[in-house]
Every structure is written in structure tokens, then in C-alpha cells.
Specification:
The protein has 20 helices and 15 strands. The chain has 614 residues and is α+β, with helices and mostly antiparallel strands. The chain is globular, with a radius of gyration of 25 Å. α10 runs antiparallel to α15 and α15 runs parallel beside α19. The longest helix is centred in the middle third of the chain and has 29 residues.
Length: 614
């Protein structure tokens, strides 16, 4: 582990790129067609006219020197009641494109202002195939139509749903709605809406001599790992087409982020990728800290890294056992789940919770590490390696496992980027890219570890990467154990004034927006007690601004894009999850194969349906 006192050399979003991208856009489309906007995260952000947006996006992908090959995210904002928009173009709705350049390790954010209650914009599905689901989501949630979209229908809400949930005039709580009543007429209407018409799902009819069979895989099927329906068009045993039907797990997580205070939303993030625990918290609190200008100490960073890597191991162990089970090996799932319990012993001792600890806080972590944490971690680091070696023999080197996975469900590196694939699935295409290395955050620049890759982006390659990532995560955890910065406070009475500079080794920042605030002085003077009460009950007031923060989560890149209008509640909370674009690649991977191959593909992707639906 590198000396934490050394100043890191941040790789994320270098300043000169901002001038380059904006100047190139102005040179191509004219100064009047491009309006820059400052953001708290430093990502080059520009407004373009709706009539030139499609051409500008194509230029950024194919002709610009930066080559923004990946459509990382596409979402919208309802601007109609937002305060603090000084200097931005007038808009009722904003459509936002977040593009990523792997060649230059840079981002650019394109924003398009739209007016009216039924806005429309040209589809970019002809530029990025990944835009298909994103544009359907924007239509579903905001009512923005995309001209030329191949299948403009709802994606998360039922087809009979009225309204667009992420508009500000749509109710956010059940108490704001009338009682739900299912009349006979309504029941019949819902049943008719479920009737299957292949054309409505974008499935092309067969030729004169073709007689396709349509089969529902799910929504109740052990191979889908939750409520997921995949409509299969079969020619004999061959999959001609597959259409995923998602939304069964949709709980309005982004809508809830716009009604909860900044700190009371943290437990909701746990339920997105519910196997990844505090990794969900990390992306969110880092985005809030970016908005508020909060800096945390070295001890906080190392604690966060240790807990994050333990949960990465937990997530991968669940995937390891269930993937083997999908392919017919029953025993491994019991072994890997037992190993997972050993991690949960550490998590429970540190956080008090297990799967959903909600332990990270804005400005730090919930509390100090308990006595004996180091012994628990050390015992686990000795426990797991020999068991992983045994799993290599019974799973990865198993002849049947190899037959079922090698050469099955492969995509090229170019295809993976076109579809927005990130994380282990992208690294399986022999591409060494990991945000912990390329854009280090929370002190990852201090740690020594490797980025596993595989030569072929097939089911077996995706498995190889994840298995090696378990070992690399253990390597990081060991460095946390051996190099944990010591705590500053030796006793309850050993504290500094809130006006003193923050210590590098506190478990919580002394920034006034950190929640809950440190409470050493709460019983000594009334002013501090009042401030503490307000900080706990209402939470911080975040200055107006926008910021996103992405991390290397267990299943790929997870980002939170947050908009503040200067209040105690987020104006817009956008969650970019890895499983959403990954699930969209299913038809690409399984066409021409068989149903057993599809089960292997689904297991190798390693998705979580709450991560897909939010």
C-alpha cells in the first residue's frame, strides 16, 4: 500500500479536456449553438439546440478527436419548478446525455432544452443501440418522445399506466393518491393489455415457411433470479429473437430520492443492488460530498475501501455459487454462501447490519470501528484462499462447466462499448479498464492490485474475471488491515473544537453539512445541541448545483447524478446502474443459441433486477 500521506494524482476528468471538447463543438457548430455550463463535478457540460443535438452527438462519437464511444447514460429533468437555474437556457424539460471516451479517459455531458407538455426529440438509437432502453425510460418516466425510435412503448411501468412518474406533478406517496379499486371493467382492461402481440414487442414475423413458437421464460423461473420475463421466438430449439420484459421490481427509487432528505435517502440506496451493500452507499455519498464540497480524512477513505471490497467479495461469492447452480452443479452454492456468512460476521460486528447496513454517511461513516475488527478480518483472509483453490477445481476446471460456457454468449469489445457494458463484463473483452485504477477515488490510488481481464468476452471469460477479482479484493482488504490510519480520539473527552481544522484520521468530517454531525459538545452548550438536532432531523442544506460520481461497483459502473436547488432535498436523483444496459444485451448474446445457453448467459452477466428496475 502506498503512503496515504502522499498526494494523489487524480486521473478523473482533467481540466484541459473541458476547453478542448467545448472549443471543438463551437468550431463545428458555431459559438451560438453551444452554451457551456459549470457543474460541481467538473464534467464538461454544454447545452445544444434540439435541432442540432443528433448531429452533435454523432460528431462526438465518430468525428471528434476525443471519440466518446460509449453512451454512458441518458436521462431527463423536469425543470418546471426548479430554482437556481441562473444562466441556463429556458426549459420545461431537459434531456441529458452522458458520454464516455475510453481513449482519452474523459466525459462530456450534453443537455438539450425542451419546452411544452409533450416535448419530442430525435432518437439516437441509430448512433448507439444502447439508447433504445434509455429513451423508452425517458418517455415512460417523463413523457418525452423520441422520433424514429423503433419501439416507443413503456418499459418500467405497466402499459395501462396513466401519467409519467418522474414529472414533478406526479404524486410521490400513496397518501397523495386516492384509494386503489380494481373494478371488473378495470380487471378486464388489464388482462387485455397483457395479451401478447409479437409486433408490439418488436419481434418480426417469420417468413412464409417459418412457424415460430413463442415461449415465456419467466417471470417466475429460477434461471432469471427474480421477476424477469423474456419472450422467446423459437425456430425449433434455436432462439430467433428474445425480448426482455422488465419493471416487475420497479419501486420508484429515483422518485423517492426526490422526497427524502439528503441523509435519510441513504438506506434506500442499499436496496438497489441489494447484494452489494455499502457499495450502493458509496456512489451516493461521494456525489453528495462533491456537491457540498466535503472532504473526508484518510481513515474514512480506508474504512470505506475495506467495507466496499468486502461487499464486492460477498457479491461475487453469491454470483459464483448461483452461476454454478444454473449450470447444474448444486454443491458449490452451499459452499460459497457459507463463505458469505463469514464476511457477514465482520459486517455485522462493524455495522450492526448484514445485507443492508446503510453504514456510510455524508462526510464519513456511522461510527468508529469496534474492538476486534482486525482479528475478524485477518481470520477471513486466512480462511478464503484455500477454498477458492478448491472451487477452481470443482467449477472453473470442470469439463462440463467449460463446455457450457466457453464460446457461448460472446460479444466483441466494440459491441460491448456500443451497448454500454462496464465492469467485469467489459474487462472480459480483454480491456483493462477499472475506475479504481483509471479514476481513483476514496484513496484507491494508495493500493496495489491488478485488473483482471479475459481474452474472449464469453460466459467463461466473464467468470474468469470475477473469480480473480475476489482474490484482488482480498489483496486490497489485507492492505487496509495492515495500513489502517489510527483514530485520533482515544476517549470521549479527547476531542477538538468544531472550529479546529479537521483531523485526517477522524471517522467523520467536521464539515457542517456532514450528517449526522459529530456530537461531542451537544450536552455542553445549547447552540451545538440545536445544530445537532437540526442536522439529524432535517439534514444538510446543499448549495445549488449538479454533480455526478461514478464508482466501480460489483457488477459494473454505478453512478449517482444529483441536482440541488439549494434545499434539504434532492431536486433530481438519477441512478445509473450497470445491470440496466447489461440486461439489454441479452438478445444480442443469445440469438442463434438454445434455451440452456440463455440460462448460462443470464448467469454470466451477473445482474440484479432491482439494479435494472430501480
Amino acid at each position: 500500500m502506498v503512503d496515504p500521506t502522499a498526494k494523489p494524482n487524480p486521473a478523473a476528468r482533467p481540466g484541459p479536456a473541458e476547453t478542448t471538447v467545448i472549443s471543438e463543438l463551437r468550431g463545428k457548430f458555431g459559438a451560438g449553438a453551444v452554451t457551456p455550463q459549470e457543474t460541481k463535478d467538473g464534467v464538461p457540460t454544454v447545452w445544444v439546440d434540439s435541432r442540432t443535438a443528433h448531429e452533435a452527438l454523432r460528431y462526438l462519437k465518430s468525428e471528434n478527436s476525443r471519440r466518446f464511444r460509449m453512451l454512458y447514460d441518458l436521462t431527463a429533468i423536469d425543470e418546471r419548478v426548479r430554482a437556481g437555474r441562473a444562466g441556463q437556457p429556458e426549459a420545461d424539460f431537459t434531456v441529458l446525455y452522458h458520454l464516455l471516451s475510453y481513449d482519452k479517459n474523459e466525459d462530456v455531458r450534453i443537455k438539450v432544452a425542451l419546452k411544452g407538455d409533450s416535448p419530442e426529440l430525435k432518437s439516437v438509437t441509430d448512433i448507439w443501440p444502447a439508447a433504445n432502453w434509455y429513451e423508452r425510460e425517458v418517455w415512460d418516466m417523463f413523457g418525452v418522445r423520441f422520433g424514429g425510435h423503433p419501439n416507443p412503448r413503456r418499459i418500467l411501468m405497466p402499459p395501462t399506466w396513466q401519467g409519467h412518474p418522474l414529472r414533478k406533478d406526479h404524486p410521490a406517496r400513496a397518501t397523495e393518491m386516492g384509494l386503489f379499486r380494481l373494478s371488473d371493467e378495470k380487471s378486464e382492461e388489464e388482462q387485455l393489455a397483457l395479451k401478447f402481440h409479437p409486433g408490439e414487442w418488436g419481434i418480426k414475423p417469420g417468413g412464409r415457411d417459418a412457424d415460430y413458437m413463442f415461449l415465456n421464460l419467466g417471470p417466475h423461473h429460477p434461471g432469471t433470479h427474480g421477476l424477469l420475463r423474456i419472450i422467446l421466438a423459437l425456430d425449433g430449439e434455436e432462439i430467433v429473437d428474445a425480448v426482455p420484459d422488465i419493471g416487475f421490481h420497479h419501486r420508484g427509487a429515483e422518485k423517492m430520492g426526490e422526497r427524502q432528505t439528503w441523509h435519510t435517502y441513504i438506506p434506500y440506496t442499499d436496496r438497489i443492488d441489494y447484494l452489494a451493500g455499502v457499495l450502493n452507499n458509496l456512489a451516493y455519498v461521494l456525489a453528495v460530498e462533491k456537491l457540498a464540497g466535503i472532504e473526508v480524512g484518510d481513515r474514512v477513505k480506508v474504512i470505506r475501501v475495506m467495507l466496499s471490497e468486502l461487499f464486492r467479495i460477498v457479491s461475487h461469492l453469491v454470483w459464483y455459487g448461483t452461476f454454478a447452480q444454473d449450470l447444474g452443479a448444486l454443491s458449490p452454492v452451499f459452499y460459497t454462501f457459507y463463505d458469505r456468512e463469514r464476511v457477514f460476521e465482520i459486517i455485522e460486528a462493524v455495522c450492526g447490519g448484514r445485507m443492508h447496513p446503510s453504514w456510510f454517511r455524508i462526510g464519513g461513516v456511522a461510527q468508529e470501528l469496534p474492538r476486534g475488527w482486525d482479528g475478524l478480518v485477518r481470520n477471513f483472509l486466512e480462511w478464503l484462499p484455500p477454498r477458492l483453490a478448491e472451487y477452481d477445481k470443482i467449477i472453473m476446471k470442470n469439463k462440463l462447466f467449460r463446455i457450457r460456457t466457453q464460446g457461448v454468449g460472446a460479444y466483441t469489445l466494440e459491441e460491448a462499448m456500443e451497448w454500454g457494458v462496464t465492469g467485469p463484463n467489459l474487462r472480459a473483452c480483454n480491456f483493462e479498464w477499472d475506475w479504481r485504477k483509471k479514476r481513483p477515488y476514496s484513496g484507491y490510488e494508495w493500493f496495489d492490485f491488478e485488473i483482471p481481464t479475459a481474452a474472449v468476452g464469453d460466459c467463461y471469460g466473464r467468470a474468469l474475471v470475477r473469480v480473480e477479482e475476489i482474490r484482488q479484493s482480498m489483496r486490497i482488504v489485507r492492505q487496509c488491515l495492515e495500513n489502517m490510519p489510527p483514530p485520533d480520539f482515544k476517549s470521549k473527552n479527547d476531542f477538538k473544537s468544531e472550529n479546529d481544522p479537521k483531523s485526517k484520521h477522524d471517522y467523520k468530517s467536521r464539515h457542517p453539512a456532514a450528517t449526522p454531525p459529530l456530537k461531542e459538545r451537544t450536552m455542553q452548550d445549547i447552540e451545538t445541541l440545536i445544530n445537532h438536532f437540526l442536522g439529524v432531523s432535517w439534514g444538510p442544506v446543499i448549495p445549488p448545483g449538479e454533480a455526478s460520481f461514478g464508482i466501480e461497483a460489483a457488477k459494473g459502473n454505478n453512478s449517482y447524478y444529483l441536482v440541488s436547488d439549494g434545499g434539504a432535498v434532492s431536486y433530481r436523483t438519477r441512478i445509473r446502474t450497470p445491470s440496466f444496459p447489461h440486461m439489454q444485451t441479452t438478445p444480442l448474446l443469445c440469438r442463434g443459441l438454445t434455451i440452456p445457453d440463455l440460462i448460462a448467459i443470464l448467469g454470466s452477466i451477473d445482474f440484479i433486477l432491482a439494479d435494472v428496475d430501480r
